[in-house]
Design brief:
The chain is an alpha+beta fold. It folds into two domains: about 140 residues, Gcn5-related N-acetyltransferase (GNAT) (Aminopeptidase), CATH 3.40.630.30; about 150 residues, Gcn5-related N-acetyltransferase (GNAT) (Aminopeptidase). The chain has eleven helices and twelve strands. Strand 10, helix 10 and strand 11 form a beta-alpha-beta unit. Helix 1 runs antiparallel to helix 2. It binds coenzyme A. The site of coenzyme A has 20 residues, from strand 4, helix 4 and helix 5. Coenzyme A binds next to strand 4, helix 4 and helix 5.
């Protein structure tokens, strides 16, 4: 299928040009900060600060940009009105399982210039660019509470693939956990087959490239021990059982970001019973009281998570672009 058949315009409007890291980084940091003011978390603020620091770093910026080893946006498009950048879209390349894929991010249009088709033009330009890159897998994430952006991407042809909720647990001195007949214990080697199966279901392959989850590091035995020893992260795992039956496994993974990670491997039928036992065990065993974040399929275990003290931070809709007919 050609770009024409996808109705991607071949010509850019004159206000639209490629993002230039040496020229646009500060303006894009300002625009992203303004447009996402209501939803920026600590990691988002850090990202903006990194853009501003990099913009000041001169030759170091050239080095980072040419090596490609940076979290800074390297590709994308901006919309300019006079001297001012009023629209931005970043195109972030990722590599996962030997495959290159792209994330469309930081889509932002200054409030004074909205509903003029700027975001649509930026997104069409990105798609046109991706046609030239061989139509790689192309994803974006949009807040479920952001109908303007959801509508924008639907109009362009993106399709919804999944919804994920980010949960946050802040430790309380004595958590008031719901009753359960499940009992916690250390994760055992024989739990791994089910744990892996449940992890694959709860964190599907299409999502893994965006998460700091590497199942091999959770694996028992030599392979997992080696992986853990070689990595900077620490990992602890607990299982919940009832009458000898495994209900679920919780993995804790340290992080350099605002919160440490939790991965919950449990099927829908037993996740609610497993959670209180697993959270109680984590509260006893973890020596760190850092906030914990859990990424989980939206709509799953909502009541149980809330009863265990988790708070839903946001639900993201994951969309991809259907290149194939
Ligand atoms: C979302 C955002 C980027 C849209 O930018 P924009 O330049 O105003 O969007 P466009 O004018 O290109 O709109 C294209 C289409 O998107 C949809 N759309 C855009 N804004 C909308 C709104 N407020 N309500 C409903 N639909 C909207 C419409 O379908 C629109 O087509 P139409 O004008 O023919 O009806 C802008 O509102 C913004 O910067 N928001 C804050 C940051 C943000 O949420 N970014 C998206 C992150 S995923």
């Amino acid at each position: 299928m050609s770009a024409q058949a996808l109705s991607i315009p071949q010509e850019f409007p004159s206000n639209l040009r490629r993002f230039d890291i040496r020229r646009d980084l500060n303006a894009v940091a300002d625009l992203v900060e303004l447009c996402f003011a209501n939803s920026l978390d600590a990691d988002g603020r850090l990202y903006i600060q990194q853009m501003r620091d990099a913009a000041r770093s001169g030759p170091l910026l050239d080095l980072a940009a040419s090596s490609g080893r940076t979290d800074l946006p390297l590709n994308g498009f901006v919309w300019q009105e006079g001297e001012r950048v009023v629209g931005n879209l970043s195109l972030i390349a990722q590599r996962h399982a030997g495959q290159r894929l792209y994330l469309i991010a930081n889509v932002s249009v200054h409030p004074e210039h909205r509903r003029r088709g700027i975001a649509e033009a930026l997104t069409q330009a990105a798609l046109q660019d991706l046609v030239a890159r061989g139509r790689p897998k192309t994803w974006l994430q949009v807040d479920a509470d952001n109908p303007a952006a959801v509508e924008l991407y639907r109009k362009i042809g993106f399709r919804e693939r999944m919804q994920r909720t980010s949960w946050r647990l802040l430790w309380q001195p004595s958590p008031n956990l719901p009753e359960t007949h499940a009992r916690p214990r250390a994760r055992k080697t024989q739990d791994w087959a089910r744990q892996q199966e449940w992890l694959d279901a709860n964190y599907p392959a299409d999502l893994r490239w965006q998460l700091p989850l590497e199942p091999v590091a959770l694996q028992p035995g030599l392979r997992g021990s080696l992986e853990r020893a070689l990595s900077a992260r620490q990992i602890e795992q607990w299982s919940a059982v009832q009458n000898g039956r495994l209900l679920g496994v919780l993995s804790w993974q340290s992080s350099a970001m605002e919160a440490d990670h939790l991965w919950l491997a449990a099927p829908p039928k037993s996740e609610a019973a497993a959670l209180p036992a697993l959270v109680a065990e984590a509260a006893q065993r973890l020596y760190s009281y850092r906030p914990l974040s859990l990424n989980y399929p939206a709509g799953r275990a909502v009541e149980a998570l809330e009863q265990c003290g988790f708070r839903a931070v946001r639900t993201l809709i994951w969309m991809d672009y259907p290149w194939k007919e």
